[in-house]
Amino acid sequence: MRSSIVSLIAVGGSLFQSVSWASPVKAENEIRAASWPFGPLVTSGRDIKNTRGGDVVYAGANWPGHGEVMIPEGLQFQSIETIVSKLKSAGMNAIRLTYAIQMIDEIYTNNGQDTTVKASFTKALGSTNGPKVYAEFLAANPSFDDTTTRLQVFDAVAAECLKQEVFVHLDNHMSKATWCCSTTDGNGWFGDTYYDVANWTRGLSYMANHGKNWPALTSMSLRNELRSPDDNSALKSSSYNWRDWYANIKKGTSAINSANPDLLIFLSGLDFDTYVTPIVRGTALTPSTGTFTTADFEGYTNKLVLEIHNYQNSASSCSSLQSSLYSSGYQAQNASDPATVNVFPVMLTEFGFDMTGSAYQGTYATCIASYLSAQKAGWFIWVVAGSYYIRSGTQDFDETWGLLTHDWSDWRSSAYISSGLGPLAKATAQG
Q1: How far is 59 from 95, CA to CA, in rounded Å?
Q2: Nearest alpha-carbon partner for 165 in 122, 131, 127, 216
Q3: Ramachandran region, residue 225 (left: φ > 0; alpha: ψ -120 to 50; beta: rest)
Q4: Does 19 have pLDDT greater than 70?
Q5: Are 37 and 168 in contact (CB under 8 A)?
Q6: Following DSSP, what letter does each residue of 34-62 receive, concatenated?
Q7: Considering the entire predicted model, what is its pTM?
Q8: Taking all residues of the chain, what is their mean pLDDT, rounded to a whole number?
Q9: Which residue has the higher pLDDT, 11 or 216?
Q10: Residue 33 — very low, low, confident or very high, per pLDDT cuts 50/70/90?
Q11: DSSP state, 364?
Q12: What burial class does residue 228 get, using C-beta atoms within 10 Å of its C-beta: 0-12 exposed, 13-18 middle, 19+ buried?
């Protein structure tokens, strides 16, 4: 419907060329601002706001699409509509949709043409299993066919999210399409084996521009879990620091904002994105003496959000865990703290635990939930996936941390959904 409206405006625009308000771009922006998700979103202090002045808080799950097949997982078992509906039924209102820069690199190598899903399954899973799983993919999603490309699957996910009013946050998870993460996988730091900075910024720009066709897309990340490049000792000793982090994230934010100024941009920290403290406290970005300043992001200072991850699953003290969350990043939401120099919204874009036992009743899971509820802070649990097409060389890999069962048909722990995740979503989700 939206594309039809925009096309009509574009065609009819010539009738009103002398009237300034008839601009198709302006008309499209007004249409978006007047309907869900009421974007573009902006930040205001510690909050994210929509065009109506209402608060927006993501409450959702990670949906991986950065593996070797390079499409969102689980589609050999269930339709896109079924998966999005399942998330929505638990009260969630957002997905963190991951992708690999390799997908965009291959599009450029192929003169702007994307690879078909059919070819991608065969390349990733082999000549025997690839066609078999691809046939299952078509059976579960009959709107696709042999001409469907990888990006068209992402398009379909975004379209379904718009239909069901689920925010899409697009996350660059890896450069090389594979399971993440380790300090020796060649994807960990700017200039690492597979982490070409020019290709990375090109990929961010490409996806930000492509995402203009996704009204449900409201934000993008720069990079998932920056970490020590232990496979490259020279790079590690010379570059793994906050100084070089700052130089590169400015390139990344510029790439996204220049391509699509509507989007919020998430900044992640070091050590697998477990802390962003120097940004919050305005301390030296070592080994330099310079500090983070919003003046370096002129024109889009109200588009920046901080993100952290937390996997302190062995925590035995809730107060200690919550103190760690505060010092690692959530201090940015407390403007009254004299040590807070830069105020931002903060989002926990990864946390999670094994769904096969009683971990959901433990200190870690319950404490995270109580903290997020009290903070009214956004979150994405790792992970919705009940299984992966392939992970670390194993095909049809079972994900015990997954919210869904192996075939993505039901909750792996209905008890957690009813007593943990559902109440958390109810207490936090807004927008």
Answers
A1: 8
A2: 216
A3: left
A4: no
A5: no
A6: TSTT--S-EEETTEEE-TTS-B-B-EEEE
A7: 0.93
A8: 94
A9: 216
A10: confident
A11: H
A12: middle
Q: pLDDT band for position 26 (50/70/90)?
A: low
Written as one letter, the residue type at 265 is I
- Structure confidence at residue 136 (pLDDT): 98
Which SS3 state, helix, strand or coil, does residue 261 take? coil
Q: Label residue 340 exposed, middle or buried (CB < 10 Å: 0-12, 13-18, 19+).
A: middle
**pLDDT digits over 248-276, tens only?**
999 999 999 999 999 999 999 999 999 99
What DSSP line would sit under 311-352, residue for residue? --TT---HHHHHHHHHHHTGGGG-TTSTT--S---EEEEE--
Q: Which ranges in 60-147 belong to alpha helices (H)?
A: 80-89, 101-109, 117-140
302 has a pLDDT exceeding 50: yes
* Spatial contact of 102 and 68, defined as CB atoms under 8 Å apart: no
Find tokens 């996988």 and name the residue. Answer: 185
Q: What is the DSSP letter of 268?
A: E
Residues in the chain: 431
The angle, 0 to 180 degrees and rounded to 10, between the axes of the packed helices 363-375 and 318-328 is: 50
The single residue listed with the structure tokens 């120099």 is 341
Structure tokens at 228: 């020590």
